[in-house]
Amino acid sequence: MKPGSWGSIWLVYIYSILCAASISKLVPIEGEIERAFHTTPAGVGIAISIISVSSIFASTIGGGIIDRIGARRAIVATSIFLVFCNVLGFFSTSMLMLDVARLLEGIEFIGIIVAAPALIMATTTGRRQVQAMTLWSTYTPAGVGLGLLLAVPFAGTSAWRWTFIVHGALFALAAAFGWLLPETPREPAAQAPRRKRPSWTDFLEIYREWGPWKLSISNALLVSIALGTSTVIPRYFARFHHISVATSSSILAAGYVPMIFAGIGAGYLLTRGIRPISIYIGIAIAGIASGILLYVPSISFPVAIAAVAVWLPCTGAAVAVMMALLPKVTRDPARGGAAMGLVGQVMAIGNFATPPIYLALLPKGNWLDFVALVLAGWILSLAFIPAWKSSKAPASVALQGDGMPLSH
């Protein structure tokens, strides 16, 4: 596909969706995993979150490597490896074996989730870049919704392991289309400066930039409370609103659809020149209000569903704003992989800690604990987002940009 074309952007988006499905595919079958391996809710929480460990230790360095070897190779090779990881998950005979499969599966957040936006940033400019980055940012809600739907047919049955086979088959299909992905544009040899052999210092250069750090922390705080809520809401609703986990998981999955459109809508507002911080403040207010309502046990079920319908789009729109800011806070566009690697690394730390914390709080049934997490997450995310000094939308949305893909 032509670099920067919408076809290539959508294909990258599909790979990212499949990755995000890995996070949530265990949620509807939590109970079956507990019974099969004689573990606790916190033990399942570890299995959900351990997928983030690879990113904690290697995401930034991995992003630097991807900047050099090319995003296309990274995405295809990782997709093939993930087929193996799902097969290993299917044949797991103990909690330890399942944890190992999940640990290996976490490589996707380096090989695909870091590579995807790096490819977009390297092949797009102007309005097209903001539109593409805000679309791509919705991979999490789309993927988490897909992961829930993959497992819902097997929830409460002895066939729960087939969740891994279905997910692995989708990755095998995606890998087969990898040849369509464009190569990252390179400078002509005559114009490219002579580069020394990359050193560890080169890979870690992004750590010296404060902008990516602020964006990474803001994003991690938001994503953590979003992941924690998605992890406990199916069982929380089942307890307080007396519905099945499968039903509440399906409701949550349906709620991810407007979340996607909210991310795209945030991108549209940015292309109209509205300040990112103005958009984010409005999102945070609505996110806090709906997040509190989610956990109030005395509200009616229809109100709880309405809260879901507001909460999810708010988180989707907020992440979209941050991803649109990523090219702006990265000094060197050629280091998009390293920048996204830092974002992924910090986010992985939050993702690793969040599910066990939320699942440990669930048996206590104190809804005020969850409300406190919602408030802290949104307020701190708002404080850290690197948009307070910006007087206009990200520079990449400037109307003088034609938005056409970069040429070779």
What string gives the helices and strands in order? HHHHHHHHHHHHHHHHHH
- Rg is 20 Å
Structural class, from secondary structure content?
Answer: mainly alpha
Note the total helix count.
18
Percentage of β-strand residues: under 5%
Q: How would a crystallographer describe the biggest sheet?
A: none
Number of domains: 1
- Text of the CATH class: Mainly Alpha
Residue windows where pLDDT falls under 50 for at least 5 positions: 188-200, 395-408
Average pLDDT, to the nearest integer? 83
The fold-level CATH name is Growth Hormone, Chain: A
* Portion in helices: over 70%
Task: Determine the N-to-C terminus distance.
Answer: 13 Å
> What's the CATH H-level superfamily name?
MFS general substrate transporter like domains
Which CATH architecture? Up-down Bundle
Global shape: globular
State the total count of DSSP E strands.
0
What would you note in describing this structure?
There is one protein chain. The radius of gyration is 20 Å and the shape is globular. The model is unreliable at 188-200 and 395-408 (pLDDT under 50). The two termini are 13 Å apart. The protein has 408 residues and is mainly α. It has one domain (6-183, 208-395): MFS general substrate transporter like domains (Growth Hormone, Chain: A), CATH 1.20.1250.20. Helix 14 crosses helix 16 (301-329). The chain contains 18 helices and no strands. It has helices spanning 6-24, 30-37, 41-49, 53-69, 71-90, 95-105, 108-111, 115-123, 126-136, 139-151, 162-176, 200-203, 210-241, 245-271, 276-295, 301-329, 336-361, 367-384.
